[in-house]
UniProtKB/TrEMBL annotation:
Lineage: Eukaryota, Metazoa, Chordata, Craniata, Vertebrata
Protein name: Vacuole membrane protein 1
Keyword tags: Membrane, Transmembrane, Transmembrane helix
Coiled coil: none
Transmembrane segments: 80-97, 117-140, 248-264, 270-291, 303-324, 360-381
Keyword Cytoplasm listed: no
Length: 403
């Protein structure tokens, strides 16, 4: 009987010790989560307008770290780098040596620079998880709009090259039939698809980051899991929409990614992180993203801009502006003057002098472009500074675990 009581007390003592240990682990976990939350809030204060000195310092240090990492990766792929340099040397020799091939070299150079320009703008638009430069609104959209207005005014898309694409001038011949929507779409297809391909490339850094974190099991992978779990428990509409995108990408695979990439979707930023975290194959992710953004989505956006800036729609919009009570005529005048000035420029020959008369609408647009570019640069500096602060905090967590 005494032995039974002693055994019961020993079992009770073990249960109490186990419960205390679980409570201690729960307390440590709670303390760690509170510490991570505090560190995240501290990182968010590292911005140029609040802590300029430390932000610039961390930005420079993060730049040095990234350069070292890129140099190491290039050294690990030195054979590929050597072949690339060899091809570059051959292309340089072909570029400068005179001969009958120069006409083809100039043609390839022109097309390559034109495509690279729009691919670069596409990358700038999607890189940075939502902080990218909105180059569709600033560059591609206005370019498609100007080509559309010129096509209806000139009744042709055969603009003289040069000066096109730097400047649009109506050709001497004028078609008798009405310009078709398909002709305008075909005229801007190359730059639109290149921009879309750039946006697809801009989605790769989050994918590779999340994939590398998942494979290595680092602190970054734990934070990604926390983000996904937090989105699953969220009840507000934006996070529920993100969760719907995440489930679609995770369960449907290629066609889910294609569906999300094929529509103007601001929630697609997390698709790269989700695919990388769940180890979706690279070509499944990039292939679906490239098809969706460069082909399907671009034709939707392009068609929308062309329809909105067609001749009849523009005239109706200007008329509606004039119908606004009191302010209508004063607002309508600069819009009409701007459209008339743009139409007049289309009929100037390349050697003719054009009167420099800047409209306030174009002046405002230029200033908006400058402000958005400056904001983009500031966001890059802040983001890189916060990345370096995160490196320091991750190193501190690692050292604490090793103690």
């Amino acid at each position: 009987m005494a032995g039974s009581e002693k055994s019961h007390e020993l079992q009770h003592h073990r249960l109490r010790m186990l419960k205390e240990q679980q409570n201690g682990n729960a307390t440590d976990l709670l303390t760690l989560n509170e510490k991570k939350l505090k560190d995240r809030e501290e990182r968010e204060t590292i911005v140029l307008w609040r802590r300029p000195v430390i932000t610039l310092q961390y930005f420079l240090l993060e730049t040095v770290v990234n350069l070292k990492e890129w140099a190491l990766r290039l050294w690990q792929r030195r054979q590929f780098v050597f072949v690339t340099l060899l091809l570059f040397v051959v292309a340089t020799i072909a570029y400068y040596v005179e001969g009958g091939h120069q006409q083809y070299v100039r043609f390839v150079e022109k097309k390559f620079l034109w495509c690279a320009y729009w691919v670069g703008l596409g990358i700038l638009s999607s890189v940075g998880l939502g902080t990218g430069l909105h180059t569709f609104l600033l560059y591609l959209g206005p370019h498609i709009a100007s080509v559309t207005l010129a096509a209806y005014e000139c009744n042709s898309v055969n603009f003289p090259e040069p000066p096109y694409p730097d400047k649009i001038i109506c050709p001497d011949e004028r078609l008798e039939e009405t310009i078709s929507l398909w002709a305008i779409i075909s005229k801007v297809r190359l730059e639109a698809c290149m921009w879309g391909a750039g946006t697809a490339i801009g989605e790769l850094p989050p994918y590779f980051m999340a994939r590398a974190a998942r494979l290595s099991g680092t602190e970054t992978d734990e934070e990604l899991e926390e983000i996904l779990e937090r989105d699953q428990n969220a009840e507000d509409l934006p996070n529920r929409a993100k969760l719907a995108v995440q489930h679609l990408v995770q369960k449907v695979g290629f066609f889910g990614i294609l569906a999300c990439a094929s529509i103007p979707n601001p929630l697609f930023d997390l698709a790269g992180i989700t695919c990388g975290h769940f180890l979706v194959p690279f070509w499944t992710f990039f292939g679906a993203t490239l098809i969706g953004k460069a082909i399907v989505k671009m034709h939707i956006q392009k068609l929308f801009v062309i329809i909105m800036f067609s001749k009849h729609i523009v005239e109706q919009m200007v008329s509606l502006i004039g119908a606004i009570p009191s302010l209508g005529p004063s607002l309508q005048k600069p819009f009409r003057e701007y459209l008339e000035a743009q139409k007049a420029k289309l009929h100037h020959k390349s050697g003719d002098a054009v009167e420099a008369n800047e409209n306030w609408l174009s002046w405002i647009f230029e200033k908006v472009v400058i402000v958005m570019v400056c904001y983009f640069i500031l966001s890059i500096v802040n983001s890189m500074a916060q990345s370096y602060a995160k490196r320091i905090q991750s190193q501190k967590y690692t050292e604490e675990k090793m103690k």
